[in-house]
Amino acid sequence: MPSLLGLAWAPLRGAVLVLVAMCAACPPAWAHASLVASEPADGARLETAPEAVVLVFNEPVTVVGVQVVDAAGTILDLPAPTAAAERVTQGLPRALPPGRYLVAWRVVSADGHPILGAIAFGIGADVAAGTMVEARHGALAIVLRALLFAAALATLGGAWTARLRAGGDETWSCRLVRGAAPLAVAALVLLRLTAAAELSPQALPWPEAIGTIDTWRLALDLPGQPAAIMVMAGAALAAAMPGGALAIGGAALLVAGVALTGHQATAEPRPLAAAAAVAHGLAAALWVGALPGLLRAIAAAGTSDAAALLRQFSRRAPAIVAVLLLAGLALAWLQLRSFEALASTPYGRILMAKLAAVALMLALGALNRWRLTAELAAGRSGARTRLRASIGAELLLAALAVAATALLGSAVPPRSRASLEALPAPASAAVAREVAADGRTALIEVQRHGAHGQVLVDAIDRDGGPLGAQQGWLVLAHPASGVAGLRRPLAPQSLGSWAWHGPELGVAGLWHLQVELLVSDFEKAVFSVDVRLP
After folding, report:
1. Digit-coded pLDDT (tens) for 221-278
2. Quick check: do 35-123 and 429-533 share a fold?
3. Backbone φ/ψ region at 245: left (φ over 0), alpha (ψ -120 to 50), beta
4. Which of 156, 194, 209, 522 is surrounded by the most beta carbons within 10 Å?
């Protein structure tokens, strides 16, 4: 390693290790849309059959399918579900018999992430809560997304360096465009098929799932078709004329389509987010995508030709970097919404890893522009080797930045969490009632703070001391909404004291509470009270 870069190599190597560790320490998180409520509630016991199941998400979703299964495992024959923004409604048969039911749902968030889960309810029967598990974007999806980003960057960067070098003559950069453009299309198709396979009700393993017609049909119906068409059309144009003037336009269309497929383009306000995502992607492609062509030119061309190419690139680099940074800052703010989220969320930590890689790339770019290019033009000994090493380090950091970007596509943006927190919360309330039953007394205190509720029970026995009990249950009913028999276990706090915590009391109105304490194998103390919550 030449002495100039040798001084910088140790901290660079350390930074690379830190970046890799930071990315590895941030596992893929949940998909961006989340189920926030349902009617009936998960685990509810109803006395009469509901007319429909309503699922409420924190973001608009596209419904793929809803299935209702009875206790015997029979899938009910139902009409197609409907979706209106954040609400998905699934109609039910009028004569739904008593029993236990599981509602399995499959939706896609606005950025194309698959989400699936289930809730359970009973009609005249107790039922445990549903599985409530959302699909995760696995390692395969992350690799495919990174491959898609890298291929898009290489396509536009290769088309641009081809024009800079020889005015459209056949070059190594043209061959790069011919290879990268189809690779971007293949990665996008496989990414959509992966999402479709996760959403498929057949639950087939991935290699087998992509061979079914249903998976391909579902992949075609996923959100984001306009962006996918942009990618395919741009790739075809760039690959057909890699050295022509239209190649840059086609490659730019490809990059814009890729930028619009991710979550960053779905933040509010969407026009600003989409414009910033496209500008950021185009600037990144002109900078990062040009590095392989520059590296190849330095290795293959004469000193004067390589220096001339570098000077052309350097003249345009400041404007490219300015657009990259301004658009990137806009996107970061739209996703984070606070500086605290940088360190307190997985999304923020991955973003910091990406920003660290970009900062080091900028430092190397300044070194190349202000010193190493001049040394190459002056014909100084070792200048070519030093410049190649510097650009090679830039490419390594660019690869880390692309990997971090792919990880960001699998993490929940803080703005999605903020939208959950911004949902209207019920008013706080506190109600205490003293209830007597069969010579015993219980003080039942109901508290609610936002959407979180708790019930505290202090039971007194006939002799005035604490009422000892083996087990305790709380049964909740909300007559106005037809919810009844929500049976929840009470947690013992001390002798005679019990507590329950949960979200069920988030609904305003009259609630009927029944506390059941198993005093012995043959005796149960039951206390009932009605409370009205705002």
Report:
1. 777 788 888 999 999 988 888 877 788 888 899 999 888 887 777 777 878 888 998 9
2. yes
3. alpha
4. 156
